[in-house]
Design a protein that fits this description.
With 799 residues, this protein is mainly beta. Among the domains are: 49-131, Ubiquitin-like (UB roll), CATH 3.10.20.410; 143-211 and 563-710, Outer membrane usher protein FimD, plug domain (Immunoglobulin-like), CATH 2.60.40.2610; 256-322, Immunoglobulin-like; 713-797, PapC, C-terminal domain (Immunoglobulin-like). It has four helices and 55 strands. The strands form nine sheets. The protein has a 24-stranded antiparallel barrel. Strands 4-3-2-1-6-5 form a six-stranded mixed β-sheet. It has a five-stranded antiparallel β-sheet with strand order 50-49-52-53-55. It starts with a helix and ends with a helix.
Length: 799
């Protein structure tokens, strides 16, 4: 029995050993591996999906379908080229590489998207920092175009005749211009036709040419050279080449502010400068920049208001300080002149020095806050040069300074001299301060010194203005001036003014002024003046005061003539410290100019005067009288009298008997719209064009020709041999004209009828002809002629 148990035991141990051997691999393998062996087989991972989605960018539909890839992680990928095709700037997004490089949209900073799987669309949106702001111009510039001019002559005149106290005088001030595409030649002077000093005295003669694109002009002849605030101008004869911003009065040359903003949804944007709206526009969602904020000189504030479709508003206010004396960054202004000085202007027609001189001035906008200046001039034994600057100090105003030096003879002194200038200006709606001081040494000289006009040793100016409640203002000023070798002058003044409301039809303005000479205490004065605006464009004024101890008073009543023409008048009575005088004036402003008559009594004498001002224009084969002409004008030519003329859709007059009308004061180098009103033309007249855009040169004229032609046509009633109207639709051949057909009741309309006309009618029954004479004067109302019989053609008789 024992052996039996031992064998069983041995057999059990063998079975246990075999089981352990089978489990040993499982015990030594990693746990994870074992789990993988025991777990069921997993499903296959999701693959990338190719999508073609209609894309929009920042809310704007692009209309393009782009390829995207949906990754297994659920994000979207796209290639650089696909993103560029949608309008994205990949460089700004920081994405660089080959065009086929795929990028994950979720990993791009500043880029977000919304994917609509049902609509198969994707809406991409960029952060404002990555979007190009929409540019809005608060003051859009006019398109500049090269001007044109029609050859012509212009004479501006001012005639004056005076008599009284046994003496009489007749004089005429005139300016004569010849202009064409090559420029303008101008000469002016005054002719004394009767009285003492009978002669002609020439003033200025020059030829000028301008380039509005380059903003430069050239003048040859008599001129006044350009100067800076700390230099002086000089009359001379020679040549000057300069920058000319006057060619573009719409151009803003000073630094202006730009305001940045952003709209969450499409909105309207309004700009207010000091509470006055100056700009309004619709913008899409996203960033925008409002450029060219003007309408301000000095301190103020600009407010930008964005308003969405639901009326929600967001206002942004920015303080501004704008000084029109500064130049915008990068902008330059220059003037170069060479010639000889002119002497005794107004006393001699030809008084010139023999020594040459030259001058040059330069201003440059170094930045939005700093403008640099330089000046150089040279003459016989004299050189003068200097530099200056204007600096805007934030919102605190503008500082100005300059230093100049001269070398050579000046005021009889040898050696060199110096000039220094400093100033400060602050302007605002509440108060303003302007201070300027200039000092020069005894030996300082410029080109005017040699012509007998030395530079002042000291020149000071200070003014302060304060706005008070109720439309009042208070100002104080000081002026100090010390010429070389003379005593200085120092004047202080104080002024108060107020607007007064007197009823609904009266405007009043009251001012009180006082001055005091600080060196001569007896030299002082005070005056009070009341100005009234009365109905009917009548103005009244009354004042009283004291000057150097003598009382003064004056009273006047006047009415200016309407711009369209009419009568004007004025009366005045005054006493200026014991000198009593009174006068009355009557003037008439018409289409051809203005005439006036004046009677004045004072000092026991009576003076009478007659005057006439106007212009005479010779253009387009006609001589036309007009009002005085300034910068540019147009001569409307229609060939027909009494045609209404419109400027910018506003009626300004009618053509004269010769079919002409002169339009003064056009804007040079910009489009000016002129048109004619054809509604009042007779029915037998037609016009090829009713409006024109004219771009005249400065100080020149241009012909605006409208082809108004008489419509020569006749309506002829044609009857056949049987006395009945020609059949409807019968073909009609017109000698010298286009064929036509017979209308109702046998009427044939003949376009371009001639004095002798022949019509051939071809019908099924044969051909016939009608001959008739036509007088255009009889066809003014297109009255029908006839009935006329249609005679058979000779070619029918042989059949």
């Amino acid at each position: 029995m024992k052996n039996r148990r031992g064998g069983a035991y041995a057999s059990g141990r063998a079975l246990l050993s075999q089981a352990l051997l089978l489990l040993l691999p499982l015990l030594v393998l990693p746990a994870g591996h074992a789990a993988a062996q025991d777990a069921p087989a997993p499903a296959s991972a999701p693959a990338a999906v190719e999508l073609f989605l209609e894309a929009s960018l920042n809310g704007d539909a692009s209309g393009a379908v782009a390829r995207f890839v949906r990754t297994p992680a659920g994000t979207l990928r796209s290639t650089l080229q696909d993103l560029r095709d949608l309008g994205l700037d990949t460089d700004k997004l920081g994405l660089r590489g080959a065009p086929d490089l795929e990028v994950d949209l979720d990993a791009v900073p500043g880029l977000s998207y919304t994917w609509d799987n049902a609509r198969q669309s994707i809406a991409l949106r960029l952060a404002d920092t990555l979007r190009t702001p929409l540019q809005l111009d608060a003051r859009p510039e006019r398109a500049v175009r090269a001007g044109s001019a029609s050859p012509g002559l212009l004479l501006n005149y001012d005639l004056y005749a005076q008599s009284g106290s046994g003496a009489s005088r007749v004089a005429a001030l005139n300016e004569l211009r010849y202009f064409d595409a090559r420029g303008v030649f101008s000469t002016s002077g005054v002719a004394t036709l009767h009285g003492a000093g009978r002669r002609y005295l020439r003033h200025d003669t020059s030829w000028s040419w301008a380039d509005p694109v380059a903003l430069s002009s050239l003048q040859v002849g008599d001129l006044v050279n350009r100067s800076l605030t700390w230099t002086r101008s000089l009359r001379m004869a020679g040549i000057e080449w300069r920058k000319n911003f006057e060619l573009r009065p719409d151009l803003v040359t000073y630094p202006v502010a730009d305001l940045k903003g952003s709209a969450v949804v499409p909105s309207s944007v309004s700009l207010y400068v000091n509470g006055m709206q100056q700009f309004n526009a619709q913008v899409p969602d996203g960033p925008f920049v409002l450029n060219g904020i003007t309408g301000l000189n000095g301190a103020g504030q600009a407010t930008v208001v964005t308003r969405d479709a639901l009326g929600r508003e967001v206002a942004t206010t920015l303080p501004l300080y704008i000084d029109t004396r500064l130049l915008a960054a990068g902008l330059s202004d220059y003037a170069l002149a060479f010639g000889v000085p002119r002497r005794d202007f107004g006393a001699r027609s030809f008084g010139y020095a023999g020594r040459p001189l030259a001058s040059a001035s330069l201003r440059h906008g170094y930045s939005e806050t700093l403008t640099l200046e330089a000046h150089l001039e040279a003459g016989r034994r004299l050189v003068n040069g200097g530099a200056g600057a204007l600096l805007r100090v934030g919102q605190l105003g503008v500082l100005q300074g300059a230093l100049a030096a001269s070398s050579g003879a000046g005021r009889g002194e040898k050696g060199g001299g110096m000039l220094a200038s400093a100033g400060y200006q602050y302007l605002s709606a509440g108060w303003s301060l302007d201070a300027q001081s200039t000092r020069s040494t005894r030996a300082y000289a410029d080109l005017g010194t040699a012509e007998g006009s030395p530079v002042a040793r000291a020149n000071d100016r200070v003014s302060l203005n304060v706005a008070l409640p109720g439309g009042q203002s208070l100002s104080a000023s000081y002026i100090g001036y010390r010429p070389p070798g003379q005593d200085s002058t120092r004047l202080a003044s104080l002024a108060w003014s107020a607007r007064l409301g007197i009823g609904a039809y009266f405007n009043a303005y009251l001012s009180v002024n006082a001055y005091q000479d600080l060196r001569r205490h007896a030299t002082r004065g005070v005056a009070a003046t009341l100005n009234l605006g009365l109905p009917g464009r009548v103005g009244a004024s009354a004042g009283a005061g004291s000057r150097d101890g003598a009382r003064t008073w004056n009273a006047s009543l006047s009415r200016a003539a309407d711009f369209g023409g009419g009568l004007g008048w004025g009366v005045q009575d005054a006493d200026q410290g014991g000198g009593r005088f009174s006068q009355g004036q009557l003037n008439y402003l018409g289409r051809a100019g203005q005439v006036s008559a004046l009677v004045q009594r004072g000092g026991g004498t009576v003076t009478r005067a007659l005057g006439a001002t106007g212009a005479v224009v010779a253009m387009d084969g006609t001589l036309l009288a007009a009002r005085q002409v300034g910068r540019a004008f147009a001569l409307v030519s229609t060939g027909l009298a009494d045609v209404p003329v419109l400027q910018e859709n506003r009626r300004i007059g009618r053509t004269d008997a010769g079919g002409h009308f002169l339009v003064p004061d056009l804007v040079p180098y910009t489009a000016n719209m002129l048109s004619i009103d054809t509604t009042e033309l007779p029915v037998d007249f037609h016009v090829r064009g009713t409006s024109q855009e004219l771009v005249p040169q400065r100080a020149s004229g241009i012909v605006a020709r409208f082809a108004v032609e008489r419509y020569v046509a006749a309506s002829v009633i044609v009857h056949g041999a049987d006395g009945r109207p020609a059949p409807l639709g019968t073909m009609v051949e017109i000698d010298g004209g286009a064929p036509t057909v017979v209308g109702y009741d046998g009427v044939v309309f003949v376009d371009g009828a001639r004095p002798a006309n022949r019509l051939v009618l071809r019908a099924a029954g044969g051909a016939c002809e009608v001959r008739f004479n036509f007088n255009a004067a009889q066809g003014a109302a297109l009255a029908p002629l006839g009935p006329l019989a249609c005679a058979p053609l000779k070619e029918n008789k042989g059949k």
